[in-house]
Each structure stands twice: as C-alpha cells, then as structure tokens.
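It would be a great kindness if you could assist me with a short task in structural biology. The matter concerns a single protein, recorded as an amino acid sequence and a row of backbone structure tokens. The record follows directly beneath this note:
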Amino acid sequence: MRLVAGTSLIIDGVKTLLDGPRIHPMAVLATGGGVLLLTGLWTPISGTLVAALALWNSFSHLGNPWSCIFLATIGAALALVGPGRWSADAWLFGWKRMSSPDRMG
C-alpha cells in the first residue's frame, strides 16, 4: 500500500511542479508526503497528510473524484495501521507486535 500511494503522490506532485510556472504548495506537500510514505518514515503523520490532501483534491478539482477518494482511503488505512516491518520507522524505533490476551473460558 505504501508503495502504490507514495509513488502515485510523487509522480503527481512532480508533474504538477514541472507543468506550472510557479510552485504550488499542495504539490510540494504531495511530493513530500509521497516520499515519507515510500520510505516508511513518520507513517501515521504522512498517512494522515495523504488522506487530507487527497480529500482536498477530490473536492477542489472538477472531474472524477474516485481516484482521490481511493488514495484518501489508502492514506487513512496506512495512518491507522502504522509502519510495516520494512520501513524506516521500524528500523529507527523498532517494530512492535501487539497481541490480545488469552481469554480464559
């Protein structure tokens, strides 16, 4: 999920930055969020950023909003799930495994 969302944001952000004569702050945020997601750094923060940017794009642009809604869903899921085993967060802070206690009958 991180690979798809991060790559999509990086490509879209760089394309927007190269097309226009001035720098768009939303494109810079999208590219930065994509890089953070792709590397797995600050996953809950970058996932929330991705979800917010995608929802903003779905309401602010004309046309089909479903790709933005899909990207917002992936960003929210990544923010809730957290970093995976192969991420910079897991390397820096350790990968934590949560388990529920056994229910005694």
Notes: Helices lie at 2-19, 25-39, 43-60, 66-81, 88-93. The radius of gyration is 16 Å. The chain has a mean pLDDT of 83. The chain has one domain: 2-85.
